[in-house]
Design goal:
The chain is of the alpha/beta class. 37% of the residues lie in helices and 21% in strands. The strands form 5 sheets. A 6-stranded mixed sheet has the order 1-2-6-3-7-17, sandwiched between helices. α8 (284-294) packs antiparallel against α9 (299-306), α9 packs across α10 and α13 (404-416) packs antiparallel against α16 (468-486). Bound molecules: zinc ion. Zinc ion binds next to loops.
């Protein structure tokens, strides 16, 4: 791996930023400059032209390497600022940490803002790393191939960022009469969730983007055989907590083994933890998700989905559903995944301590203490104890399934995706939305681009890509939802 010193890196970055927008795009047949603006009204926006512009933004955002760590979101922030300023929207850059910034911009509905009515459009600018050797194209090249745009961030989350940009730009160009403020927010440090993340942003700058409603990543539009099956709108999420399992024993010479060897006790504890299944319980969101999914699933799966809480077949049904799709299993219960092991300093020394890390995902409302109580019983070993690690996630309230905004998402998304049902969704993973929900925001995860399971699996993986047709459709639907909720007819 090439290690660059700071100066070389800055120079390289500057050069990359200068060259990136022109060379690869032209080579790939993407127009380097957006087509001329079209006059548009909110009812008759030329979404096709807008999508072509947004595709250029997406490509150029992919070409700005914001791999976190270190993030370097400042470069992407500058790019976003440039687009907004050209449209006559005044953005503000929020400096979060050195090299790391967020961007906020607002379309006002009246001279005095009412934050409780405002709609916040959120997307993050950072991406996870890419193993170049495992990709068929340059992860930061934004290659166009077979109707797809390839690149790290094509799914997560630069497509959403470009779509949010397109939405606020469209509203501005159409001089839409807004009945609530629309706020655009591009965040940093989502993937690492560290010191520069939304938590800090909220602590320092909440007044700049306080809102009653938000749209963020976290949901999905599931497509199969060219047809949208359903739209999952994230309304709540599980809570991530890391716990260390610590086994202690007597250290000594490995030539004389003892029964209290910490490595042996740790291994036995982890093996027992691996077989543990927490009790099932259904939150309102998960219950409604399975009810909706049963209506469009094949008969066999639907039968078991409908029996998840039946008096006599619940246990069997829960097992069948969890085995059919591990994600469904994770939606029903707290989960525990051992992820790291450490112990020992020499091959011939029995260590006095060995440790494992468990990544625990709690259902909202559950506490880690109750789960650890159960694991203590399962492990049943005086030499083993649990230590909750710092920076545990916080449980946030669930966003309402009765809000006006959820009703609009429900109506418009279903209509625009050929009558496919909208299902409320509780994601097994965490997003920035929990921090928003903790500040009384009705935040919904709507990632509006229809994709197949196969493409979705490339998120954080190799050859991440998004069909251009899905990108265009997603922009159309997002704009439709936001207009319906914010524009006075
Ligand atoms: Zn993301």
């Amino acid at each position: 791996m090439l290690i660059l010193n700071r100066r070389t890196r800055m120079l390289w970055l500057a050069l990359a930023m200068f060259l990136a927008p022109v060379l690869p795009l032209a080579a790939q047949g993407i127009p380097p400059n957006p087509p001329p603006r079209q006059a548009a009204s909110s009812s008759a926006l030329d979404t096709a032209a807008l999508s072509r512009e947004a595709l250029v933004w997406l490509a150029q955002l992919i070409q700005i390497n914001t791999t976190n760590p270190p993030g370097n979101e400042q470069a992407a922030a500058k790019y976003v600022v440039g687009i907004l300023e050209k449209e006559g929207i005044t953005p503000e850059v929020l400096e979060v940490a050195p090299g790391r910034s967020a961007v906020v911009a607002r379309l006002r509905s009246s001279a005095i803002s009412d934050p409780s009515r405002a709609l916040l459009l959120v997307a993050h600018m950072d991406v996870v790393g890419a193993e170049r050797a495992r990709w068929s194209v340059d992860p930061f090249g934004a290659a166009m191939k077979d109707g797809y745009i390839y690149g790290r961030g094509a799914l997560d989350d630069k497509s959403m960022l470009a779509a949010n940009l397109a939405t606020i730009v469209a509203l501005k160009r159409s001089n839409a009469r807004l009945n609530r403020d629309v706020i655009f927010l591009a965040t940093d440090d989502e993937e690492a969730g560290g010191e520069a993340s939304i938590k800090t942003l909220i602590a320092k700058n909440w007044d700049k983007f306080a809102a009653g409603f938000a749209l963020n990543e976290g949901g999905e539009v599931v497509a199969k055989n060219g047809k949208v099956q359903y739209i999952a709108v994230q309304a709540s999420e599980k809570v991530s907590v890391n716990v260390a399992v610590v086994a202690k024993g007597t250290s000594g010479h490995a030539s004389i083994p003892t029964k209290d060897n910490a490595v042996v006790h740790l291994a036995a504890a982890v093996a027992k933890i691996g077989t543990y299944s927490a009790p099932v319980h259904f939150t309102t969101v998960v219950r409604r998700y399975f009810e909706g999914l049963a209506a469009i699933s094949d008969d066999e799966v639907a039968k078991w989905m409908r029996s998840l809480e039946s008096a006599d077949r619940a246990e069997h049904a829960q097992r069948v559903i969890a085995e059919t799709n591990p994600q469904w299993g994770a939606m029903m219960r707290d989960t525990v995944a051992p992820t790291m092991l450490s112990g020992g300093v020499r091959a011939n020394v029995i260590p006095g301590e060995a440790r494992a890390i468990l990544n625990i995902r709690l259902l909202p409302g559950d506490t880690v203490d109750v789960l650890l109580g159960a694991l203590t019983k399962v492990v049943n070993d005086q030499q083993v104890r649990f230590e909750v690690q710092p920076n545990a996630g916080l449980a946030a309230p669930t966003s309402s399934l009765e809000s006006d905004f959820y009703a609009v998402i429900n109506k418009v998304a279903s209509q625009d995706f050929g009558g496919a049902p909208v299902l409320p969704y509780q994601s097994p993973w965490a997003t920035d939305s929990s921090q928003l929900r903790l500040h009384n925001v009705q935040a919904y995860g709507l990632w509006p681009f229809p994709v197949t399971d196969d493409d979705l699996k490339r998120m954080h993986g190799d050859d991440e890509r998004l069909p251009v047709a899905s990108f265009n459709k997603g922009i159309e639907v997002l704009l439709h939802i936001v207009s319906d909720f914010t524009v006075t007819k």
